[in-house]
Amino acid sequence: MNTTDPNSVGADGGFLANRKQLLIVGFLALIAAGIGFAVRGGLLDVWSAKYGFTMTELGQITGGGLLGFGIVILIAGMLVDTIGYKKLMLIALACHLISAVMLFAATPVFNASGKDACYLLLFWSAFIFAVANGICEGVINPLTAAVYPEQKTHYLNILHAGWPAGLVIGGLIVFAKGSVGWELLLATYLIPTALYGIITMKEAFPKTDAQVGEISYSGMFARLIGPFFLILLLAQALVGYVELGTDSWINKITGSILKSAALGTALFIYTSLLMTMLRFFAGPIVHKISSLGLLLASACLGALGLYLVSIGTNVYFMFFAATVYALGKTFLWPTMLGVVGERFPKSATVAMALMGFAGMVSAGALGGPGIGYKQDYFASQYIQANAPETFERVKAPGTNSFLMFPQIVGIDGAKAAMIGDMGAAINSDVEIAGERIADEAFAGLRGQKQWWDENKQFAETDGAPVGEATLFGSRMAIRYTALVPLTMAVLYLILLFAFRSPPNQQAAH
Hints:
By secondary structure, the chain is mainly α.
């Protein structure tokens, strides 16, 4: 056998010559996804202040991206065996580029057509970005399991260290948001995108088991039918909610609790760096306590960490709480994929696509919007009970809803921001616009300026209740979210006690 041939396969089924390069492709793709996710999360306060979005609307923008991520993971996973790994990665590259182009139209669209049009543009930009990420995820998970069959969980954790590494880089980039346009900051994900694109075009990719005729589509699905995989799917949906849904907000929420956006970002960077390092050591931990044991411990730590974050009052306690939360969430996603790879090796492309779909759709449709809704709900309840006149001045013009829960009126982010800085930003924007403020392109800015001129005499009165309501909403949203990993722990206990047979026996069922 010629081991210099990138298509040569060893006795264990692993690619010998270029599997490290293929792992790097996936690692870079996840760095790009992490940068985009982290920078977008760090820009929520900017978007709220600049465009007037409520927390629910911001959650829908971030959630729309995750929802698209999940749908495309499923589609990509089903197409891997038809189109192949390499072509799908090139399609992802094109989507990453299109999403970046859309970002630069957001402010002109807001000035010309207002908040609703800007919301749609940002939503669809996030959605297309997620399409690219979903295609990558649908490719790189089964690809890594295929080229590293001897240590699937270990190398899937190493692969997914690229995600928190991207979060670290993105968190550092967010520190420049006061001096650099947010569009440029968010577009920095194009750097790792270009790198994975170059390597993808150069390298040879393997064929899947279905492409070489070792198993049929019907055979792959048949092996997944049963309670074990169904419980895994439910648990993965909860993983998506608690990890990605929470991470969409944790930067902003911890910044609100600590009354410092910079400290919130610093905590986010710290937890992401901790995750990056820990994921390189998943193999020895799994060897000691098993994959399901690691998942059970992670879920318990995640619940405790979220509760501690919700009651934090100072930076030292929040540092401890964030550490517990990071330890809890670090191994969840890649270890779930590792369990699937171990139990259902011949169905990996389909099984991992279904797992990614469940996690991302839950994060996008439930996690991001749900946590945003909870913030709006508890904040509006608080301010209506304690300062009803202030609420009438700062409430959003429309209502927000989530699933079957009641419609609510949240706090308008732009109004809250103008009160917070005593109109400094809006006056500066109007001054920069100059005589052009009368143009149709600045209709949104004029509306915000009009509101400030009519309500600035109440700013000192309204500042405290708006801040207190926002903080209360943040705390309660995180506290209720802690119930999700507790539910996951119950599911992992069921799997541990009800399914004791080794992976190879389960895979044959």
